[in-house]
Amino acid sequence: MRPKKAQQLFIKFFILALAALLSYSIAYGSFRLKDDNLIHLKFYDVGQGDSIFIKTVHGSYILVDGGPDSRVLNFIVKDIKPGPCYLDLVVLTHPHSDHLYGLNEVLKYCRVGVVLTTEIKAETKVFGKWEELLREATSSGRVKEVSLARSNNDIQLDGILFDVLWPLNESVSEVENENLGSIVFLFKYGDFEALFTGDAEMEVYDEISPDALSDYEIEVLKVPHHGSSDSLNKEFFEKLGPEVSIISVGRNNKYRHPSLSVISFFKANGSTVLRTDEDGTIEVVTDGKGYEVSVER
Ligand SMILES: [Zn+2]
Predict the structure, then answer these.
(1) Residues in domain Metallo-beta-lactamase (predicted)?
(2) Which end of the chain is more exposed for a tag (fewer CB within 10 A), N or C?
(3) How much distance in Å is there from the Cα of 214 to the middle of ligand 1?
(4) Would you place residue 176 in the very low, low, confident or very high pLDDT band (cuts 50, 70, 90)?
(5) Residue 11 Cα, ligand 1 centroid: separation in angstroms?
């Protein structure tokens, strides 16, 4: 952990917490998930990919993408309560391996309530395996339900609203680039709001109606597409104005993510930029009023 940054974060979020009359303590260093009445969002350091684990106030578990390999399982087993693995909601934003591979491992190990996905397919072995595992799991009851993301089909769980912004109401199975079908959703709990973007690129944000976000003040943004410049829709993200922007990215990756232009854009707009390749796993904890952020290193 770089002390200066940690200190800045500490001060920033402590002030926010005070403003919200919160009284819980701020802890750094421990990365086992606490059993408390707060929401924990963990942006796992899975290398070049995305995997975000959420524990709700009632102890439900949500996983958004699974990262590029099986390491997500090592993270999850430390974060769920002892006993058989059950995840209430699993989201596959789009079928690229850096989001999907780990979910195949999760399906072998965990039972799942709802799988939220899209119609978009990929011509890859990893996706073929996903379809096979999902078929088996739904017919055996290990997965209760598969739901297709649509903007008129929001999900509510333990007081959290998952407001799907993309895809819109019609199917997006015909896309030239799978990233354009990536699920974008708003996570809302009380006054805390985070935007999840998968790898959705530039054009997607032009399709999302500005009204869809006008009621929200976004605290945390999962920066799209590992900080690639092809997702930097400046008009959209300027209006969004996230306080913290989190980039999930692998060290020395071959795509040269994240783009310097993306980092400087968010910093210039007053956002604190965190990245898993440098900060390790990043945890956001909220009670729906204030929030705290901590980093692994
Ligand atoms: Zn990706």
Answers:
(1) 48-251
(2) C
(3) 27
(4) confident
(5) 32
Ligand 1 centroid vs 181 CA: distance in angstroms? 12
Cα(198) to centroid(ligand 1), Å? 7
Domain count, the chain: 1
Query: Could you list the residue range(s) of the whole structural domain that residue 10 is in?
Result: 3-295
What six digits make up the tokens of 160? 């959290």
For residue 252, give the DSSP letter: T
Q: How far is the CA of 203 from the centre of ligand 1 (A)?
A: 16
Per-residue pLDDT band at 170 (split at 50, 70, 90): confident
Distance 50 CA to ligand 1 centre (A): 6
Percentages helix, strand, coil for the chain (3-state, rounded to 5) are 30, 25, 45
pLDDT in tens, 62-97: 999 999 999 999 999 999 999 999 999 999 999 999
Q: Please give the helix or strand (H or E) that residue 177 lies within, else none.
A: none
How many CB atoms are located within 10 Å of the residue 178 CB? Answer: 21
CA of 49 to the centre of ligand 1 (A): 5
